[in-house]
Model the fold of this input.
Amino acid sequence: TAPGGAAARPAVPMGMAPGAVQQGAQQALPHASSVAGTAPGAPPAAATSARGGASNRIDPAQIPRATKKAAQGFASYLTRSASGVYNPPAAASDFVVQDVGNCSPRYMRPTLNQWPDRLELVSMCSMPMGLMVQPMASPAAGEEGLAVVDMGQAGPLRCVRCKAYVNPYFRFFEQGRRYTCNFCGAQGDVPTQYACALGADGRRLDAAERPELCRGSVDFVAPEAYMVRPPMPPVFFFLLDASHQSVSSGAFENACRSIKQLLGEIPQPDRARVGFATYDRAIHFFSLKAGQTQPSMLVVPDIKQVYAPCPQYLLGKLEDCREMLEELLDSLPAMHKVAPPAEAALGSAVQAAFEALKPTGGRLFVLASAMPSVGLGVLKNRAVNVAADTAHKLAAPADVTYFRMGQACAEYQVCVDLYLTPQSYMDVASLLPLARETGGGVQLYSPYNPALDSPKLFNDLRWALVRPTALEGVLRVRTSSGLTVSDHYGHFCQRSATDLDLPQMDCDKALYVSIKHEERLPKDSEAAFQCALLYTTIEGQRRIRVHTLSLPVTEVLGNLYRGADLEAQTAFLMRDAARGTGSSAFKLLRERTFERTTNILFAYRKFCASSSSSGQLILPEALKLSPLYTLGLMKSPGLVGSDAKPDERSAWLARALTAGADRVAPMVYPCMYALQTVGPGAEASGADPAAALPAPSTLSSEHMLPTGVFLVEDGENAYLWVGAQADPAMVNDILGSPPQQVDPASFSLQRLGGPWSEAVNRAVNEVRRRRCSYLRLRLVRRGDALERNVFGMLVDDRSGAGMSYVESLCSFHRAIQAKYS
Done:
């Protein structure tokens, strides 16, 4: 099945209310004797600390671990209460949000849940100030969907000065005839038709009945004044690589078969319009003119001056031409099977498809296997004899061709999604701007294996078609007076300092927005943030989705650490590092990442825990896993350097720029599950999904028992590792035969009916549900070449990618002590 619904998240206790006194708010790690390795920028292992004694090794039994068992059931989280704003649960945990004035943390998650009142406080703590913004995020089971408010042609009430939308923090006075904006303090008149009397508490009498006055998130129906053209219909154009590499690998045939099966799942078939084209050294469009019994091929041989032939016939209404499309998809593999050309005019084909979509806009699905070798945007193999000190340059595009194409697509509301199925290097970094500038995504299946990748390709395509998606969007984030937006990270096209163009924005993609101070904030005030997304629904209605968040302002440094959000801050580190690739060496990026975390921990040690022993590494409770996540980021495919394949690195960096808060943790710290502990005694189908998985194991080879079967996953790839001494009966039940008789290249996990098989399938399906991704599952036996991939995900161990977790803590400790000297 395809992924669907909101990802489940392991539950954690709720944070404390602002200003509350927290017991045990810091993690003190006593040291044992001996030495560890060094981190980038840290003193040598043999150096002595500033406060005496040789460098020490931290006791592994007392260090923070990210291996908590997911609690069964869902925690309830109120976005606001009488005592203030509580820290939200961890993004990857299971919780149900009750919107009582602030938007859900699924939509906006700040790096700090108490906002510093001045720039000097930010400089002292060194923590990033910003928001994770995921405006189309799916609510969890049990949560209410967003209310839709229609205010007619007048549209929603907005501030006369800053244009903020009405929200629960607008203040009304003069019997409800005037308002004060909570963002800029401006006062304005309330339209007569919207006015309402006030109660004794100063609130409007109808506040509880109007979603925009009592909820942090709401969808407004946009009046005609918000439209420059009628809302676009859903348009889906599929561009398929028919070159020799695509046909011979099976990718072309699998793509045709998957699209045919998915035609029935395309939303709004009575309005949706669909088009197809293939390419090799020429481009082949297919006319879907009404009245035809079968599509006619229109060939574009000129790949230098490309065009869309008969563009009025290239898009057909799905409801009218579905049978014709099914016949076309059945015939395409045979049509291109005989002597397919080796050349691939990918750049020219994208340009021609864009010309076909110009009048309407829409979504362009590009399924490509070969590097563009003729026509526009020709690329060459840059990954030959690359020196370690120049490997980072492979993460930058070879030229600006695809960047310009992406910007042109964004201007006409065309979103490009890349599904890349190469057998070798394809230069994903150069193709990436097509997706980045248009709000699209990148899926890499390399090297493409039909047995392993066909199910994933099908499910990835299906999820892209059916998931909640906003079309032709424009997004802006507003802040209250004294604050301003300084930067944006993600996939979008930005033509002005404030607005982001998003040809499409789906429920899985998030932006990071950096905030900075312009002036000191008043004492006892609140910092307000509002994300407004003007978009078109798949049903063709123009709406304005508004998320509002109001946070308490503090002048106490300790409150900032109590209100710190680990996932949001890690998301910033990840995006900041991803943006730096291509222009900075990987070693410098790792050093900068290490230094950022060191500065945060040093500030806490100096200003909030100065009375603690110098022999202890003091970690704030909310950020106790920050050193672990920083280490995982430094050892990730995006920053590991020349050890990673360039295309895999570029695909990882694309995910890093768009990942939501709940996807951040597995990207830097994968999960490992000992499946031998869930076997026949696991709960039957229908039980709490969290029961399908055991507690995650520490990512260390010491915990990979030779008698066990382990699932290791990072949200995109998964490995089923079978120990050499695992129980043969258990392994046979899972695999259907002894592991030595199973070909890993063609392995596919099946439901074989036995108790172990059912338990393992439940566990894998639960992981896929949490990640909203089908995952590429591969079998790994002891001694297989793929073991290198598995061991590369064991962050706690020392490896060629870097130091161990214990060694990194020692390095952080030495670096902090060095700052005292």
Residues 586-607 form the longest helix (22 residues). The two ends are 58 Å apart (CA to CA).
